[in-house]
Amino acid sequence: MDFNYSAEDEAFRQEFRAWLEANKQFAPHRAEVLGDEGSGGWNAQVRWAKKLSEGRWLAVNWPKEYGGRSLNVMQTIIYNEELARLGLTPPMIGMGISLLGPTLIHWGTEEQKRQHLPKILKAEEIWCQGYSEPGSGSDLASLQTRAIEDGDNYVVNGQKVWTSAAHHADWIFLLTRTDPAAPKHKGISYLLVDMKSPGVTVRPLVQITGGKGFNEVFFEDVRVPKKNLVGEKNSGWQVAITTLMFERSGGGGDRGALFQVRELVNLAKKLPRGGKTAWDDAGVRQKISEFTCEAYALKYTGYRQLTRRLKGMPPGPEGSMMKLCGTELNLRMQLFAMELLGPYSQFEYHAPMAIDQGKWSFRMLAARGGTIAAGTNQIQHNIIGERVLGLPKG
Asked: If both were cysteines, with which of 115, 118, 130, 156 could 219 make a disulfide (CB 3.0 to 4.6 Å apart)?
């Protein structure tokens, strides 16, 4: 693979870099927005999204006719590299930009696209994802939320859980069972539901970090117009898989790992140990070096995936590998940070006298969630074992 960027790609880099330098003050810093209600807060994320939207730097992968920039693969990489260079991330304002928007572009009716895509693009319409249920997490197809036809509507009853940003969301894209007699991967439909509809109840789930980003969502005789069906009735699993492909393509990755390796180095250099610093301990340097090697291994695994995309090939196993290895590496780095901090690891986020404002303890508590989201790591092990290595099902 040629690791050099074309002149056109470098021109794009300079364009985005210049915009970022002129507008970075509007962005919440990575360290300021650790949780849903972090010091940067939800409103700061929305402001950042609106600022990006003004410059047409939000939803850059979307086709130009829908307000995006139709970036190619290399330009998308550059876009993320330039954000990471300043320690920034794309705005985290629900699932509209990353998941629902691309799914609607592929599956939605023209009416659905006209109604929702412009508002998503301007950060005026927030979306959440109604997939997981108390009895159907990784086994998503076993979901039990029901939708029954009644005239021009579906009537929805059921419950969803672990629904990120539901307490902020205007809409939810929802998987429901519309044919209970069909095999579990059949008889599922994909609905767009207004969260202000009568019968929708949202209850926050307080996490171990103290954040409230997850929620339970209950549906009691919620009426949903049939025009809000995406794809065909009883064929929602195909639409859902499209959404999951967009979700898992963002799991794991190397940029966050490399960024946190540098932060670990800075932490070790400031922590006193035996009259010197933790960084002066060869064992500490060796451990951080191991993390660095793994982070670069993720980077080059990402290049393998990039090569497939540039050749027009379908996504390979690299996505599952990066999600699995990236989230497990993150967990081990956060646990090592706790070892470095010693007694200071007990300070909570933003506690007085906490080192680095207590962000390391917050990250450690949150890190396990990454191994569960977007398909648990146990599921990723199965995917790699069965579909890549050809091992028998366990």
From this structure: 156
What secondary structure, in 3-state letters, does 21-53 show? HHHHHHCCCHHHCCCCCCCCHHHHHHHHHHHHH
CA pseudo-torsion sign 382, 384, 385, 386: positive
How does pLDDT run across 287-318, given as a tens digit for each residue?
999 999 999 998 888 777 777 766 766 566 66
Does the annotation count 247 as an active-site position?
yes
Which token pair is 136?
């159907």
Angle at 24 between CA 23 and CA 29, to 5 degrees: 150
Structure tokens at 210: 């103290």
Number of other CB atoms surrounding residue 284 within 10 Å:
22
Per annotation, catalytic residue among 82, 133, 247, 294:
247
Length of the chain: 394
In this prediction, residues 322-342 reach a mean pLDDT of 92
**Distance (Å, whole) CA 13 – CA 2:** 18
Q: How far apart are the two ends of the chain, measured CA to CA in Å?
A: 37
Closest CA to 321 of 391, 390, 383: 383
Does residue 387 contact residue 393 with C-beta atoms inside 8 Å? no
Phi then psi for residue 386, to 5 deg, are -80, -45
Residue 189: strand pairing partners: 176
DSSP element (H, E) containing 376:
none
Among the listed residues 168, 175, 190, 317, the one whose alpha carbon sits nearest the alpha carbon of residue 252? 317
| In the predicted structure, residue 70 carries a pLDDT above the cut 70 | yes
Question: What structural domains and CATH numbers belong to the chain?
Answer: 7-93 (1.10.540.10), 127-233 (2.40.110.10), 249-388 (1.20.140.10)
Q: Which residues pair with 193 in a beta bridge?
A: 172
Find all residues with CB under 8 Å of 286, minimum gap 6, and list them.
Answer: none
Secondary structure (3-state) at 372: coil
Is the whole-model pTM more than 0.85? no
H or E element that contains 4: none
Q: Answer whether 294's CB lies under 8 Å from 329's CB.
A: yes
| H or E stretch covering 5 | none
Please state, in angstroms and rounded to a whole number, the distance separating the CA atoms of residues 387 and 246: 19
Q: What is the pLDDT of residues 99-147, one digit of tens each?
A: 999 899 999 999 999 999 999 999 999 999 999 999 876 678 889 999 9
